[in-house]
Amino acid sequence: MNIYEIGSNGYWTGASRSIQTSGGSPMGWTRITPPALSVGEYALWIDGWNITTDVPVVIREVAEVNVQVELQQTINIAIVSNASRLIQTQRIMAQMEIRGQV
User: Fold this and answer.
1) Is the pLDDT of residue 61 over 70?
2) From start to end of 7-83, where are the E strands?
3) For the chain, what is the radius of gyration of the CA atoms?
4) CA-to-CA separations, 59 to 4, 8, 27, 82, in angstroms, rounded
5) Is 69 helix (H, G, I), strand (E, B) or coil?
6) Which phi and psi (to 5°) does residue 96 adopt?
7) I want to staple 56 with a disulfide (CB 3.0 to 4.6 A). Which of 11, 32, 34, 94 is the partner?
C-alpha cells in the first residue's frame, strides 16, 4: 500500500512510499491517493485532497531559540570582557596604592 506525504503547508510534497497494509501511516502522511494533476495544479489537503492553482507557500520558521542563544553568548562575551577589564583596572589601582601614587 502506498502513502502520500502532506507538507507542513498542507500541500502534497510529491513524496510517496510503500508500507505494509497492516501498518499505520505516520503523522503527515495519508493513504488517500492524491488526485491526478495538470500543469499548474497542486493537491491541497483540507479534510481530503482538493485541487488548487494556488502556488504552495513554504513556511520557514525562524528558530527563535537560536537567536536567544546567540544573544546570550554575545552578552556573556561582553560580561567576561568587561570583567577582565575591571580586574585589570583593580590590579593597576592596587599597585598604585602600594606605591603611594593614589
Assistant:
1) no
2) 12-18, 29-30, 42-45, 49-52
3) 30
4) 20, 8, 18, 40
5) helix
6) -65, -35
7) 11
